[in-house]
Each structure stands twice: as structure tokens, then as C-alpha cells.
Design goal:
two-stranded antiparallel ribbon; 19% helix; six-stranded mixed beta barrel; 3 helices; Barwin-like endoglucanases; alpha+beta; secreted; RlpA-like_sf; binds 2-acetamido-2-deoxy-beta-D-glucopyranose; 192 residues; globular
Length: 192
């Protein structure tokens, strides 16, 4: 009898643990708000280069209004973007409606992290490739919209993107001809 209740106790403990884990996962996950059907960019639109992707006719792209919750150690993908006029960045930066030089360390954050401009002109510390760099948030990497002129006919961003100027990539010491340039795992935190 004693043995039986012990088994029962272990069994309930395991069930409780699994339930807690499931709740944790649900709280952390950020689900798409919907899907966007890709449209073909008009002739001569969508500037290729720097790994930027152009929308494809009929392809369904997930849209996100959320990003993973912010901690002091946010896992993200670092991508590269130009913030200069007429380049692959689309319109001017969301924070100040201006274009910016790619030789200063600046970034765009996915919609959830950008959080309705609350991070505008705040600095983040990016850790990657064994180095760290401070960069200022100037723009949104729009996870909720895309495939239009304002987004240079590119699909919506993923929800975990830090889209950085080439100054950030240089500061992290990533060689331009390496496989990492333009797409690399990093962590970021709010700069002190
Ligand atoms: C790619 O990025 C570099 C540096 O950020 C920029 O000079 C170049 O014009 C960009 N290419 C395109 C097609 O936007
Ligand atoms: C972020 O860094 C820039 C450049 O160092 C600085 O001018 C700016 O004031 C900083 N932003 C905040 C909110 O501290």
C-alpha cells in the first residue's frame, strides 16, 4: 500500500512538472497574427543584394505582432541592412523618418521588440562572434507587414531579428567573405 501511494506521488509530480513546462512554453511562444500572400514586385523594384529576399507571388508569409519576451539575454538572428537612401532598406527609418549612414552602428528590431517606437534611440549591446558592440535602435524590422513599396517588396521579418548596419558587422569582426556575414546568431540586451 505504501509503495502504491509513493508511485502515485511520483506520477502526480511528473504530471505537474509537464503541465508547468507546457505553460512556460505557451507563455514564451509568439504565434503568427496571420499570413500574408506574396505579390510579385513591380519590374525594377526589390533591391537584391545583402541577402535581401524578394516576395514571391502566392507564397504565404507568417506575420508577427509579438517577439519573444525581452530578458537580459535575448537570442536573435543578426541580419544586414542598409539605412541609406535608394538601398535595400526601403523607406526612411521609422524612429525619425531619416536615412542614416551605414558606417555608424545602428539597427532595426522586429516589431515586437521595437514595441511601438519605445526603443527608438535607445542602445542595445549585441554579443556575437566572441565580441560585443553597442548599437542604436533607429528602425523597425516590420514583422507584421511586407511585400509593398514601404518594405522594398520584401517579406515580413521574422519575430527575432536584429537587422544591423554594416558598421555593426565590422565591429563584431565578421569577415565579409565568411559564411556568417549577413546571417548569424547573436544575443542582445538593453545597454547599460
Ligand atoms: C548592401 O549593403 C552595403 C553596405 O551596407 C551598401 O553599400 C549596398 O548598397 C547594399 N546593396 C544594396 C543592393 O542595397
Ligand atoms: C545611444 O548612443 C548614442 C551614441 O553613443 C548616444 O548619442 C545616445 O544618446 C544613446 N541613447 C541613449 C538613450 O542613451
Amino acid at each position: 500500500m505504501k509503495n502504491m501511494s509513493f508511485k502515485l506521488l511520483i506520477y502526480s509530480a511528473v504530471i505537474a512538472l509537464l503541465a508547468a513546462q507546457r505553460l512556460g512554453v505557451e507563455a514564451q511562444s509568439c504565434q503568427p497574427s496571420g499570413h500574408l500572400r506574396g505579390r510579385k514586385p513591380p519590374p525594377g523594384k526589390c533591391k537584391r543584394g545583402n541577402d535581401s529576399e524578394c516576395c514571391k507571388e502566392g507564397k504565404m508569409y507568417p506575420m508577427y505582432k509579438c517577439s519573444p519576451p525581452v530578458s537580459n539575454h535575448n537570442k536573435a538572428m543578426l541580419t544586414i541592412n542598409s539605412f541609406e537612401k535608394g538601398k535595400d532598406g526601403g523607406g526612411p527609418s521609422e524612429c525619425d523618418r531619416q536615412y542614416h549612414s551605414d558606417s555608424i552602428p545602428i539597427v532595426a528590431l522586429s516589431t515586437g521588440w521595437f514595441n511601438h517606437k519605445t526603443r527608438c534611440h535607445h542602445n542595445i549591446t549585441i554579443n556575437g562572434n566572441g565580441r560585443s558592440v553597442r548599437a542604436m535602435v533607429v528602425d523597425e524590422c516590420d514583422s507584421a507587414k511586407g511585400c509593398d513599396a514601404a518594405h522594398d517588396y520584401q517579406p515580413p521579418c521574422d519575430n527575432n531579428i536584429v537587422d544591423a548596419s554594416q558598421a555593426v558587422w565590422k565591429a563584431l569582426g565578421v569577415p565579409r567573405d565568411s559564411g556568417k556575414w549577413g546571417w548569424m546568431e547573436i544575443t542582445w540586451s538593453n545597454a547599460k
